[in-house]
Amino acid sequence: MSFDIIVCGGLAPDPLQSLEPAPGPALKNEMMLPAVFDPWAAHALYEAAHLAAQHPGNRLRVACLAPKAKLQQVMMIMAQKLPFELIPLDGASNGFSDAMPTAEALASAIQALPDLDRDRLLVFGGWESATRGAGVVMQIVGERLGITEQFLAVDELRIDNGALVIKERVEGGRHMVSRCAAPPAVLAWATGNLPEPPNHPQTGMANMRTMMPALQKAPPTATASGIAFREVALPKVQRETRIVKDLPAADIARELAAWVKE
Question: Is this model's pTM higher than 0.70 or not?
Answer without folding.
Answer: yes
